[in-house]
Design goal:
The complex is a heterodimer of chains A (about 450) and B (about 400). With about 450 residues, chain A is α/β, with parallel strands linked by helices. Chain A has 15 helices and twelve strands. In chain A, the strands form three sheets. A six-stranded mixed beta sheet of chain A has the order 1-2-3-5-7-9, sandwiched between helices. A three-stranded parallel beta sheet of chain A has the order 4-6-8. In chain A, strands 10-11-12 form a three-stranded mixed beta sheet, covered by helices on one side. In chain A, strand 2, helix 1 and strand 3 form a beta-alpha-beta unit. In chain A, helix 4 runs parallel beside helix 7. Chain A is globular. In chain B, helix 1 crosses helix 2. With about 400 residues, chain B is α+β, with helices and mostly antiparallel strands. The chains are: A alpha/beta (about 450), B alpha+beta (about 400). At the A-B interface, strand 1, strand 2 and helix 6 of A face helix 1 of B.
C-alpha cells in the first residue's frame, strides 16, 4: 500500500449501490450514493479508503449486466468536495503523491469508461475531486440549491489532478475551462453558482431542490429513451491556443510568474487540445507531484490553516459557554476603520452601536454612512430593524443625559476636545438612498 | 356607497389528484420527511397542470392526524412555501383523523361553492414511521371516568372486532375473501397501469443503503391466498377476526388534489374530472367507528336527493374489511359487486391515515374515466372516534348511456 493509503485519520467515504427502475420504462439504473456518514458540516471527501469503496461500487455495477445506466449522487446538501488534503503537507516522498494522483485517476475515470452511460446527479456542493468525479460521467444534472461548485486547486497551489484539467477543456472549451480552473480560484476562490455551471456548460441541466433526484432520474430516462437530446457545442480547437495565450498574458499581468500553480494549470489546458485521455491524466500526475513537493504548496497550506481553519476554530480560545451576551457596542473614533467596525458590529451582532469622535462632523458622517449602508441592504442581511423614531428620541435624550452625568469613559478619552457621538442604526426603510456610498468606501480604502 | 357583490353558488370540479406511492412504516419512506412528501405531490400536480398560474391558488389545506414536528407548524402553509408557491398563497392544517384529506377537500370546496375561492390545493399526509398512531395523545380522563366512550374506542382494531360482534353474519371468512379480492383487484389495476398514472415517484433516503426510488406501493401482496389469510394472528382479541391480512397496515404517504370552480377551470383550461354533488359527515358510537359511512352516506344521499341506486361507483376506504362489509350490507350490495373499489383499496395499497380521502377521489376519477356510463359515484370512509364521511361526485366523462 502507498503511504497515502494508510492515513489513520481518514473520514472514510462509502459508496453504496442500489438498483432502481427508471421511470418511463427506461430500464434499470445502478444508483451509487457517496456518503461519509457524517452530517453536512463534515462534507464528503475522498481518501485512499474512500476511493477503494468507490472502486468496489464500480466493480459491483460493472458486474450487473441488466443496467441501462449508472448514476452517482451525494448525501443531503453535499455531492463531494474532493480529495482529503488533511495529510498532504506531511507527504515527503514524490512517489506517494504520484501514486495518490494515479489512484484517483484510476478509480474516477471508470465513471467515463463503463459499458453504459453514467450520470452525475450533483445534489449539493461539489469541489475539486467531487467536481472531477462529475466530469468523468457522461451527463450531469445539478440542483439549483447546490451551495457551490468549483475546481479550487489553483487557489491552494495545486492543479485539478484527478482528470479535471483534461476533461473540462475538452467538454466546454479552453475559455470556460480557464474561468473555472484558473480565473475563479485566483479571485479569492470564487465558486460557481448552479446557474454559472449551466452557462459554462459544466453541467447539462438544472433541477430544483425539492424533487431534484426524482427529476434527474426522469431526465436520465429521457436521455436513455432519446426523448431528451443533450446539446453540447463542440469546443473550437482552432482558436484554442489563442485563448490560452490571451489567458497567459492576463496571468502575467497579475502574477508575474510569482507562483507556479496557475501556470501549470494553463499548460495542462493548453495540452488538452491534442493530448489523449491517458496523456492528459499522466501530465496531471506529474504536475501535481511537482507542486506538492514544492515550497509554494506548503506555504499555502500553512496560511490556509491560519486564516481559514484557525479563524473558524481558533486554537486556545476560551469555551463559548463563558461568553457574555453583548447587547450594545461602543466604538471610539469615527474614521473609516471605526465606521466599518461599527457597521460590522451592527450587522453581525444586530445591537445598537455608539460611536464617539472628537470631531463632530466625522461622527455625523460615519453615522450617515452606516445608516445608508444598512438601509441599502436587504433587511434579511441588514442591521437591527430599529425605527427612525427610536434613533431620534435617542439623539434628543443623549445631550441631556451627558450634561447631568459625570464624564463617560469615551468623553474622558477625548477630554481635550469636544465630544460628539453618533449612533449607527438603520433609518426607516422608506428612505431610498443609493447604495453607492457603501460600494465606494472600501475601494477608496485600497 | 359600494355594495358587496351578490352571493352566487358555483360548482366545484376535481381537476387532478396525485399521490406518493404508499410505503410500509419503518421502510422505504422512513427517512423522508412528511412535509417533503406533500411538497413532491404538489409540485407534480403543478407540473401536470401547467395552465394553472400558481398565484391563482387561493388556499392550501393539508391534513395530518398527528400534527407534530414535520406534520405540525401549520403544514398547509409550510408545504405551500416549500413547494415554491408565491408567498401570497396562504395555507392551513386540517385534522379529522382518517378523513383529514376528505375534509380538506370538502372545506375548500365549500369556499369555492360560496364564491370565496377560485382554485385551491388540498392535501393529506401521514408518516406513521415518524409519527406512530397516538403519538402525544392525551385523552381527557373524563372519557373513561364518565364512560363517555368505551375503552375500545381509541384502538381501531378493537372497534373492528366490535363491528364483527354487532353484525355476526359478517364473518371472518367474508372479511378474508373481501381482503383477497382487494389484493387481486389492485394487482390487476397495476398490471393495466391505472394506478401508476397518478403516482409521484419519491427518491428515498436511507443512510444505510443510499438513495433509492419508490415508484410503486410497497405493501401490496398480490399472492395472498385465503389459506394464508386464515392462518394469520388476530392481535386484537384471542380467536378474534381482525388480522393484518384483512385490514390496512401502518403506512407513510401523501396525497394532493387541485380543486376549482367549474367556470374557473374552463377559463384556465384545466381538466375537469368530476363535479362535486354533495357531502356529509356523521357521528356514530366511537367503539364501532367502522359503521360511520352508513349514516354519512344516508345523510349525503338525502341532502342531494339521490338514492343509493343512482350511485354507479363506490370508493370505500378499506381501513378494515369488516367495515366495508358493514357498509355494503346496509345498502344491500354484494361483497364482490364490481362497482365497489374496482381498483382495490387500502387493504392492498395502504392507508396513511389523513391522506386516504384524496386517494379515494383520485381512484374514483380514474374509475369514471374508464366507465363513461357511470353518472354518479361516491367516496366514503370511516373515521376514528366514531364518524363517517361521504362525498358524492358526478362523472364529467358521462356519455349519457345507461349503465
Amino acid at each position: 500500500m502507498t503511504q497515502a493509503a494508510t492515513n489513520p485519520d481518514e473520514v472514510v467515504t462509502h459508496a453504496r449501490v442500489r438498483v432502481v427502475d427508471l421511470p418511463d420504462g427506461a430500464g434499470r439504473l445502478g444508483l451509487i450514493t457517496i456518503d461519509n456518514d457524517r452530517d453536512h458540516t463534515r462534507p464528503t471527501t475522498f481518501g485512499p479508503a474512500g476511493l477503494a469503496s468507490i472502486d468496489a461500487a464500480l466493480d459491483q455495477v460493472s458486474a450487473m449486466t441488466d443496467l441501462a445506466a449508472v448514476a452517482v449522487t451525494g448525501k443531503p446538501f453535499i455531492f463531494a468536495v474532493g480529495a482529503d488534503l488533511s495529510a498532504i503537507g506531511l507527504v515527503d516522498r514524490r512517489e506517494t503523491i504520484e501514486e495518490f494522483g494515479q489512484l484517483g485517476h484510476a478509480v474516477l475515470r471508470r465513471f467515463g469508461e463503463l459499458d453504459v452511460p453514467s450520470f452525475a446527479f450533483v445534489n449539493g456542493a461539489a469541489m475539486g475531486g467531487g467536481t472531477e468525479l462529475a466530469l468523468h460521467c457522461t451527463y450531469r444534472t445539478m440542483s439549483t440549491a447546490a451551495a457551490a461548485m468549483s475546481l479550487p486547486e489553483v487557489f491552494l497551489g495545486l492543479i485539478p489532478g484527478w482528470g479535471g484539467a483534461w476533461l473540462l477543456p475538452n467538454l466546454v472549451g479552453p475559455a470556460n475551462a480557464l474561468e473555472v480552473i484558473v480565473a475563479n480560484p485566483l479571485q479569492t476562490n470564487k465558486q460557481l453558482t448552479p446557474a454559472d455551471a449551466l452557462r459554462l456548460g459544466v453541467v447539462d441541466v438544472l433541477f430544483e431542490a425539492p424533487d431534484f433526484l426524482e427529476q434527474s432520474m426522469r431526465w436520465a430516462a429521457g436521455v436513455l429513451n432519446g426523448t431528451v437530446v443533450v446539446d453540447r457545442p463542440e469546443p473550437d480547437r482552432d482558436s484554442w491556443d489563442a485563448v490560452v495565450d490571451f489567458a497567459q498574458a492576463m496571468l502575467d499581468d497579475k502574477l508575474h510568474r510569482a507562483t507556479p500553480a496557475p501556470y501549470r494549470a494553463l499548460d495542462l489546458v493548453r495540452a488538452a487540445r491534442t493530448a489523449t485521455r491517458d496523456e492528459g491524466f499522466a501530465a496531471e500526475d506529474q504536475a501535481l507531484a511537482d507542486l506538492v513537493m514544492g515550497d509554494d504548496l506548503r506555504a499555502t497550506l500553512y496560511s490556509f490553516d491560519l486564516v481559514q481553519k484557525r479563524a473558524k476554530r481558533p486554537a486556545g480560545a476560551p469555551d463559548k459557554a463563558l461568553a457574555r451576551k453583548v447587547t450594545k457596542v461602543g466604538v471610539v473614533g469615527a474614521g473609516l476603520m471605526a465606521s466599518q467596525l461599527a457597521l460590522l458590529f451592527a450587522k453581525r451582532l444586530r445591537v445598537p452601536v455608539v460611536m464617539t469622535d472628537p470631531t463632530p462632523s466625522a461622527s455625523r458622517r460615519a453615522s450617515r454612512t452606516c445608516a445608508t449602508t444598512c438601509e441599502s441592504r436587504s433587511p434579511r442581511v441588514g442591521c437591527p430593524p430599529t425605527r427612525r423614531t427610536a434613533s431620534r428620541r435617542w439623539s434628543r435624550e443623549r445631550p441631556t443625559r451627558q450634561r447631568s452625568r459625570t464624564p463617560t469613559s469615551s468623553s474622558r478619552l477625548c477630554s481635550r476636545t469636544s465630544t460628539s457621538s453618533a449612533r449607527c442604526s438603520p433609518r426607516s426603510r422608506r428612505s431610498s438612498r443609493p447604495s453607492a456610498c457603501w460600494r465606494r468606501t472600501p475601494r477608496r480604502c485600497r | 356607497m359600494a355594495q358587496p357583490s351578490a352571493r352566487r353558488v358555483r360548482d366545484v370540479v376535481f381537476v387532478d389528484g396525485a399521490r406518493t406511492p404508499f410505503g410500509k412504516a419503518g421502510s422505504a419512506l422512513a427517512e423522508t420527511r412528511a412535509d417533503d412528501l406533500v411538497v413532491k405531490v404538489f409540485r407534480e400536480l403543478l407540473r401536470r397542470n401547467p395552465t394553472l398560474p400558481p398565484e391563482r391558488i387561493d388556499d392550501v389545506a393539508v391534513a395530518a392526524t398527528t400534527q407534530i414536528g414535520d406534520q405540525g407548524m401549520t403544514i398547509g402553509r409550510t408545504a405551500a412555501l416549500l413547494t415554491g408557491l408565491p408567498r401570497s398563497v396562504p395555507g392551513y392544517s386540517v385534522d379529522r383523523m382518517c378523513a383529514g384529506a376528505m375534509t380538506a377537500v370538502t372545506t375548500l370546496s365549500s369556499a369555492i361553492m360560496a364564491d370565496q375561492y377560485d382554485v385551491a390545493l388540498a392535501g393529506g399526509v401521514e408518516h406513521m414511521s415518524r409519527h406512530p398512531m397516538g403519538e402525544g395523545m392525551d385523552p381527557n380522563p373524563r372519557f373513561l371516568a364518565e364512560r363517555l366512550v368505551d375503552t375500545d374506542a381509541l384502538i381501531m382494531g378493537n372497534t373492528a372486532e366490535n363491528l364483527h360482534d354487532r353484525f355476526p353474519h359478517l364473518t371472518k371468512e367474508r372479511a378474508d375473501a373481501y381482503a383477497m379480492a382487494s389484493q387481486t383487484k389492485t394487482a390487476a389495476a397495476y398490471e393495466a397501469g391505472w394506478i401508476q398514472s397518478d403516482l409521484v415517484p419519491v427518491a428515498t433516503r436511507s443512510a444505510e443503503l443510499g438513495w433509492g426510488l419508490l415508484s410503486a406501493d410497497e405493501v401490496m401482496r398480490p399472492n395472498t391466498t385465503l389459506e394464508g389469510l386464515a392462518t394469520l394472528k388476530t392481535p386484537f382479541r384471542p380467536h378474534g377476526r381482525v388480522t393484518a391480512g384483512n385490514s390496512s397496515g401502518l403506512n407513510d404517504g401523501a396525497t394532493g388534489a387541485i380543486l376549482a370552480a367549474e367556470e374557473v377551470a374552463d377559463e384556465l383550461g384545466l381538466s375537469k374530472k368530476m363535479r362535486l354533488v354533495g357531502f356529509a359527515f356523521a357521528g356514530v358510537e366511537p367503539e364501532v367507528m367502522g359503521v360511520g359511512p352508513v349514516p354519512s352516506t344516508e345523510k349525503a344521499l338525502a341532502r342531494t336527493g339521490l338514492s343509493i341506486g343512482d350511485i354507479d361507483l363506490f370508493e370505500v376506504n378499506e381501513a378494515f374489511a369488516v367495515q366495508v362489509l358493514a357498509f355494503l350490507d346496509h345498502f344491500g350490495i354484494a361483497d364482490d359487486d364490481p362497482r365497489v373499489n374496482p381498483m382495490g383499496g387500502a387493504i392492498a395499497v395502504g392507508h396513511p391515515l389523513a391522506s386516504s380521502g384524496i386517494r379515494l377521489m383520485s381512484y374514483l376519477a380514474r374509475d369514471f374515466e374508464r366507465t363513461p356510463s357511470a353518472k354518479y359515484g361516491l367516496t366514503t370512509m370511516c373515521i376514528g372516534l366514531g364518524m363517517g364521511g361521504t362525498v358524492i361526485w358526478e362523472n364529467l366523462n358521462h356519455d349519457g348511456s345507461a349503465r
